[in-house]
Design brief:
By secondary structure, this protein is of the alpha+beta class. The protein is built from 3 helices and 2 strands, in the order H-E-E-H-H. Strands 1-2 form a two-stranded antiparallel ribbon. Strand 1 (about 30) and strand 2 (about 35-40) form a beta hairpin. It starts with 15 loop residues before the first helix and ends in a 14-residue tail after the last helix.
């Protein structure tokens, strides 16, 4: 008897960012140089920045304790 795995179709268009955006805790992903490569919606709301404004820039530039 042959068994074929048929993956759920609900996940066929699933993007990992969708899951991270659904979380209520903020998540910021940095590269090896500590530059922002991703921030979910909760992080953008809490830190008052848009990932489009910060992508590729050092995370320290957006620290609330950074002297102006």
């Amino acid at each position: 008897m042959a068994f074929e795995y048929d993956p759920p179709t609900a996940l066929s268009h699933f993007e990992p960012g969708d899951l991270l955006d659904a979380l209520s805790i903020g998540i910021v992903v940095l590269d090896a140089q500590l530059c922002v490569i991703y921030a979910n919606s909760a992080a953008q709301d809490a830190l008052a920045f848009s990932v489009n404004q910060t992508r590729g820039r050092p995370f320290g530039d957006f620290s609330p304790n950074r002297a102006a």
